[in-house]
Amino acid sequence: MVEVDRLMIDEMGISLIQMMENAGLQLARLAIDRYQPSSVLVLVGSGGNGGGGLVAARRLSGWGLDVSVALTRPDLDGVPGSQLSIVRGLDISIGEPHGVDLILDAVLGYSLSGPARGRAETFIYWANDESIPVLSLDTPSGVDVDTGLAPGAGMVADATLTLALPKVGLLESRYVGELFVADISVPAQLYDRLGIAVPLDLFRTGQIQPVTLGQGR
Questions:
Q1: Is the CB of residue 171 less than 8 Å from the CB of residue 138?
Q2: Most exposed: 87, 131, 169, 181, by fewest CB within 10 Å?
Q3: pLDDT single digits (tens) 45-62
Q4: At what angle do helices 16-35 and 48-62 cross, to 10 degrees?
């Protein structure tokens, strides 16, 4: 999936901000459809995963929900920073974690290297101690998508919305909860080029699909 993302950006001209917008929209859609919350807290990391979470926060706020954001860093760089600038201009509070109907976990993504640290680790422990359902974006924070294990603190999600295709480690991971996969508009030709067999009709009936084969918890 790292190579899929690289080829989309470098060779197909599909920008990171387009991919981030797709991911955040799908996360917001699943949050509404599965949980019908009135209040949502988005836990946001400094990378692309956090940027997707900020898109979801903006979407949910625009749909009339009470949305708040907690950041692992006060300022973000690059495309996530641009998303944060948009959120700062909206009626979305930015502060510390607190009680809500639903937590969106957008702290750490598939680029995890080693255990979660600092405020990322703090957010994971805090969410795991709360009796609030957690919906994770792409992978539960702190979980290695190749192994499904957490080298340190790992978010225990009620559900996970992974992007484009399920990562192998998520299929049996106890951290994942119910697993869904979302369409972020990866061209079929790209999968063909990489020798990945993906049904052309995977998302024909809906842009979010449940994944049940081999799922563990």
A1: no
A2: 131
A3: 999 999 999 999 999 999
A4: 50
Residue with tokens 């990945």: 196
Give me the CATH number covering residue 90: 3.40.50.10260
The residues, any chain, with a CB within 8 Å of residue 29's CB and separated by 6 or more, are: 207, 208
Q: What is the pLDDT of residues 97-149, one digit of tens each?
A: 999 999 999 999 988 888 999 999 999 999 999 999 999 999 999 999 999 99
User: How far is Cα 127 from Cα 206, in angstroms, rounded to an integer?
Assistant: 30
Asked if the structure places residue 217 within a domain, the reply is no
Range(s) of the domain holding residue 88? 2-211
Confidence of residue 213 (pLDDT cuts 50, 70, 90): low
Contact 135, 157 (CB under 8 A): yes
Structure tokens at 50: 């956090």
Is the overall model pTM greater than 0.85, yes or no?
Answer: yes
Domain membership flag for residue 137: yes
The partner residues of 71 in beta bridges, in order of sequence, read 44
